[in-house]
Amino acid sequence: MPIFQLLEAVLIVFKNKVNAEEEIKNGFVFQSYLGKSLAIESKNEEAVKLALKKGFALVVRRHPEVGFTRIKTLPDKKFSLKKIYENILKIDKKGSWFFHISEHMLLNGSSGNPKLVPTSLSLNKIIEIVKSIR
Q1: How far is CA 52 from CA 15, 65, 90, in A?
Q2: Which numeric CATH code is attached to 3-132?
Q3: How far apart are CA 5 and CA 125, in angstroms?
Q4: d(CA 70, CA 61)
């Protein structure tokens, strides 16, 4: 791989990290049963990683164009997305959801598999579901 392609890749990673800061500032902060939580519409997965590092217990990220949604928590045994998963499945009958065995990731859709169906639930509806859990 030529050095310029490598440098280009590094530049993209840095840009994503800088943009993630702004996306977190513009996100919706709320309290959930897990603690301080954040919901964002973004294409940038770095925003989720950074938000968790900044102390958010739960982060919801919805892709603004395709609607794929990811919900993640810190990798701590006291955090589980199982209740959210169960409640979402009661409402979203068409979306393709994957509940990770760790119970810290609830993933809808994938850029690598075009057969997976994005959720029809809006970001606001997902926030409502998360906030309803005690």
Answers
A1: 18, 23, 27
A2: 3.10.310
A3: 41
A4: 5
CA angle, corner 98, sides to 103 and 17, nearest 5?
75
**Amino acid found at 48:** V
Each of the 134 residues of the chain gets a pLDDT tens digit; together they read: 578 788 888 888 878 877 899 999 999 999 999 999 999 999 999 999 999 999 999 999 999 999 999 999 999 999 999 999 999 999 999 999 999 999 999 999 887 887 899 999 999 999 999 999 98
* Residue of 49, 62, 66, 44 whose CA lies nearest to 123: 62
Q: CA quadruple 11, 72, 85, 27: dihedral positive or negative?
A: negative
Amino acid at 79: F
Contact 38, 51 (CB under 8 A): yes
